[in-house]
Amino acid sequence: MMASYSESVLRPVSSSARVHHAALGGADGREAYEDDEVVVQQLLAAGVPVRELVRARRAFYLRAVTCAVRDLGIAQVLDIGPGLPPYSTRDTHSIADEHHGFRSRVLYADVDPVVVAHWRMWTDGARHRAEVLDLREPDTVLTEAEAHFDLRHPVAVVLTGVLEEVAGGDSPHGCVRRIVDALPSGSALIVSHLTGEQDPELVGRAVEVLSEVGLPLYPRKFEEIAGFFEGLRPVGPGLLPVSLWHPTHADDHAPPVVHAYGGVGLV
Fold it and tell me: Is the pLDDT of residue 6 over 80?
């Protein structure tokens, strides 16, 4: 006899990756479900400029990854918590390919198997591949990294928008440190992280809305975010609001976003 499932079981729940895509809008919104767009509308109704925030963070990610692979010459990238593949902007492996060709290698790591399934369709499965991995289990992440990369050469680790999803009790600083300490000299760490320092009430409303749909966030202060870069040499302007980190002419008309810090550190 075929098993039956209730509508509540079959109905997709919101995920941070799909809510992010829904907030980006346009072509990227196609991967979102109605529930994800509802969450975006709830954030907007609460006065949270979620579309501007995710676009500013996406722009920071593009600038920072380009800096790592072009300016620092890093051909290998470990992208942890990449979200769904983008339709409207470039992705990590296309940027790496542009500057390093067949020397480039990218490993996408995400705790969400649906996200990983999308990346597996998006990549070649050889030089660039995706695995279900949890940042909170850094030794497992490193095992996959050691299998995929040549660790005699530098690796850029990308953590843009994932660390605020890790509770303090799960030791996010310790997890990042464990990964960074295993990398060779010349590697880089790229981080962007939500903060409530500039507007605690607004960020508090965002945390409340997302917590109600099962997507808890843990904003951190500047000093806490800077702690992820402890012992590393800052690249460029250091840790800044994401829209102020090496802005390009394309960012000239974008509203400044101060609800997230971003930076790059060199091992």
Answer: no
